[in-house]
């Protein structure tokens, strides 16, 4: 998983708060830590995702959801004016669709009685099973208990008693000579693709170490994802996988077959070096689509058509050039092609005048090649 946004600023939300962040079309994992005395609404992109239940102790909410586009908003709103809502922190990750998502939680419930503890919200996902790993203990007067609720159905204990029939793990059932137990169990659900909520309710101080959610098969994004064979853009470059958006840049900036691969690799590394640098955005598409950075992405540039759909001409030459750009993009992303620029993060070619940022600077790499007119062209790379 890739962390794309983090907010550790603990604060009390008096009414409503929106937190904006940039991403791209992908499956997202939110981890939200909050505590509050009255009900509150949690929204993502103005859609109600979850109603936070009353509890003075810490609640951790995991949300798995597909978000489309690049600009998103997390919204928290109190439902009762005399209530309180404290946001401890939240993080947003990108996760690649797979059959199973394993969460290393390692959280001990704050000491309290029968209250919401850890909640998992699956937005429009199938749900085949969950496997949990929990430690709970027998204690004086009141022991650790854990209740598990899936889509409002309590997963009751196999040891049915009148007093504990709604609890899954019951600390007072543990023997005095072994008062602490770590248990791993799988609950099979076989639920279809829709919204699901898995709630862990705690009494006293159990510890949830790990939770594995099985989807049956890798979740399928609800929008088309461009591929090397079908690269036409969706109208939002945020829908592109990293390899596709980088290949678009290489194809748009250096499609000409006279341009040597060293130049394509160097341009790709300029982009990757920006992604790796804290002074630039964290993703390939954010770096590449920044206004006025790469001319082929400018709306009025003649190469823009080749960026939007590399195969729009139907030319076999263009098809092979696109596939070659895609291959190089993969090697750059996977570190299979070394950086010939020694960390450069800017470049220009001599078809334009030297930009202001290049004045007085010594280039880290210069590439000279034959152009279509029979003369020489030069590309200059700089580490700024």
Task: Describe the overall structure.
There is one protein chain. This protein has 384 residues and is mainly beta. It folds into three domains: 1-96, Galactose-binding domain-like (Jelly Rolls, Sandwich); 97-115 and 126-219, Jelly Rolls (Sandwich); 237-382, no CATH class. The protein is built from five helices and 19 strands. The chain has helices spanning 242-253, 261-276, 284-288, 304-308, 316-333, and strands at residues 2-7, 11-12, 16-22, 26-36, 40-44, 47-52, 55-67, 71-78, 85-94, 100-108, 115-137, 145-150, 153-154, 169-170, 180-203, 207-214, 346-349, 365-370, 376-382. The strands form three sheets. Strands 1, 2, 4, 7, 9, 10, 11, 12, 13, 14, 15 and 16 form a twelve-stranded mixed sheet that branches. A hairpin with a 2-residue loop joins strand 5 (40-44) and strand 6. The mean pLDDT is 89.
Helix/strand layout:
Elements: E1 2-7, E2 11-12, E3 16-22, E4 26-36, E5 40-44, E6 47-52, E7 55-67, E8 71-78, E9 85-94, E10 100-108, E11 115-137, E12 145-150, E13 153-154, E14 169-170, E15 180-203, E16 207-214, H1 242-253, H2 261-276, H3 284-288, H4 304-308, H5 316-333, E17 346-349, E18 365-370, E19 376-382
Parallel strand pairs: 7-11
Antiparallel strand pairs: 1-9, 2-9, 3-8, 4-7, 4-9, 5-6, 5-8, 10-16, 11-15, 11-16, 12-13, 12-14, 12-15, 17-19, 18-19
């Amino acid at each position: 998983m890739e962390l794309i946004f983090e907010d550790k600023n603990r604060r009390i939300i008096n009414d409503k708060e929106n937190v904006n962040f940039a991403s791209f079309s992908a499956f997202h994992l939110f981890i939200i830590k909050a505590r509050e005395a009255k009900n509150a609404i949690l929204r993502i992109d103005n859609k109600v995702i979850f109603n936070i239940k009353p509890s003075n102790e810490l609640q951790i909410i995991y949300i798995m959801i597909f978000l489309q586009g690049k600009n998103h908003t997390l919204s928290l709103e109190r439902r009762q004016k005399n209530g309180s809502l404290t946001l401890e922190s939240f993080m947003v990750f990108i996760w690649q669709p797979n059959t199973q998502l394993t969460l290393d939680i390692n959280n001990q419930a704050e000491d309290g009685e029968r209250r919401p503890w850890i909640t998992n919200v699956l937005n429009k996902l199938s749900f085949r099973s969950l496997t949990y790993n929990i430690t709970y203990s027998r204690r004086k007067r009141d022991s650790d208990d854990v209740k598990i609720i899936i889509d409002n159905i309590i997963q009751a204990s196999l040891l049915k008693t009148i007093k504990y029939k709604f609890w899954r793990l019951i600390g007072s059932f543990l023997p005095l000579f072994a008062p602490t137990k770590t248990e791993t169990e799988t609950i099979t659900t076989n639920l279809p693709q829709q919204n699901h909520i898995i709630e862990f309710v705690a009494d006293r101080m159990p510890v949830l170490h790990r939770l594995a959610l099985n989807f049956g098969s890798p979740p399928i994004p609800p929008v088309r994802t461009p591929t090397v064979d079908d690269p036409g853009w969706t109208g939002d470059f945020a829908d592109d996988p990293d390899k596709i958006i980088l290949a678009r840049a290489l194809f748009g900036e250096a499609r000409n077959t006279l341009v040597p691969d060293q130049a394509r690799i160097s341009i790709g590394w300029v982009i990757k070096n920006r992604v790796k640098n804290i002074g630039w955005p964290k993703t390939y598409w954010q770096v590449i689509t920044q206004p006025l950075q790469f001319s082929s992405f400018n709306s009025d540039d003649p190469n823009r058509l080749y960026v939007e759909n590399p195969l729009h001409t139907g030319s076999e030459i263009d098809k092979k050039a696109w596939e070659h750009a895609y291959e190089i993009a993969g090697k750059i992303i996977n570190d299979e092609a070394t950086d010939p620029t020694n960390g450069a993060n800017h470049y220009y070619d001599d078809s334009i005048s030297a930009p202001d940022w290049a004045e007085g600077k010594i280039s880290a790499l210069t590439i000279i090649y034959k152009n279509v007119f029979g003369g020489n062209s030069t590309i200059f790379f700089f580490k700024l």
